Amino acid sequence: MGPPTGNLDWLYHLLGYTLAAAGLLLFLWALLWDRSRGRRRCPKCWYDLSGTPSRQCSECGHEAPSEQRLFRTRRRKRIAVAAVVLIAAGYTTSRVPLLQSGGWVELIPSTVVVFVAPPSNAPYLSVAAPPLAVTLPMPTLSLKEQLTLAAWSRMESGRLTRWQERAFLKRFLNANGTEFASFIAAPPKWPTDKDFPLLVKKTFIPTGTSTPLTTQFVFAHPRREGAKTITFPTPLQFERHLPVEFRLLFGKREVLRASTQLPVFIEGTTETLLASRSDDAATTLVQAALNPHLSELNGKPWLILYDRADVEPWNRIAFGIAATFEVRSQDRTIGTGYFIPQWTRSVWKHWDEPEVTWSEDPAEALRRAPLHLVVRGHPEPILKQYLAWPFDKPAVESWTGEFTVQLELRPHPGF
Description:
Among the domains are: 109-128 and 140-177, no CATH class; 183-270, Immunoglobulin-like (Sandwich), CATH 2.60.40; 274-406, no CATH class. It contains nine helices and 17 strands. By secondary structure, it is of the alpha+beta class. Strand 4 and strand 5 (229-232) form a beta hairpin.
């Protein structure tokens, strides 16, 4: 049964490959076929000098500079040029079906495309859709965008070899800051008596095509895999390095594989995990960051403490803060509470009104004497926070200091 009559792609391919093959044979014949085979020949007119002892040609008078020059292979350069033109014509003919669908950029070989195309997301890919009543203009792509689109579309259609796919994907990952470390994260420090967690990004990386890049990790040690984390049960079989194999899939096809030793730091127990920060420098930073004061609202004083914001001195605080506080009046405790600001994430509402358990009316107490606030750091909530989600914590430290400050009456930050 012959090819369908409505599709002439096979004819272009057959004609193109035939022309290219003929051109290649002609090229080889022009450059390599007419060897001397032991015959002495004039290097200018190629007259046979086998019966002539001298190096001077009896036909054209040319004298060869050395005996070796008489044994040269005759190369027909003009025919070789014609053969190159024939090969190019065959290559172009075989690409006609792709030219009709993808434009002139389809003439560029894939090896050139993967090294020249800007390594970014594909600008768009044409999608089959019902015809519209009104013809909309197609977006005009720049040369760079056309090359990038060609690289992704050829990869999606399986027209790139494995090494070509790897070459372009490595450029893409490097250009977009997407390295192995961006797909997996280990805690800065972890105790030996707790199951070890890893944060793994299994979500896809958009490419601008209908086929995403997805990550896959292979470990030699026993583990439990969750939606976002992989957990290694105790007793742990590693302390400083965790072997891991990283795979990158384009659709269902593996296009990149790498093996590495992931640095980990496993030491001590849960009780010794957190380092305490009770030094004067840390306490001064905490006092300035919390900035405690009173604000009057509806005739009642409210305690105001400040949460993490992208300002000083919060930018210099990498440790966790969990504090209990006492409101004191003339050496009597009239109110208690606790406050846990964000450890790593800045909040848009950077002030807070922590709940205070009052044993006396604060307004009445404030009229009698100034109020003081005693703040003490407690590591237990910070330890729970770290063990629950350690991946975004810059330091395995907790503030355990103490300070006392007189509460001034200031305008409410929300008004």
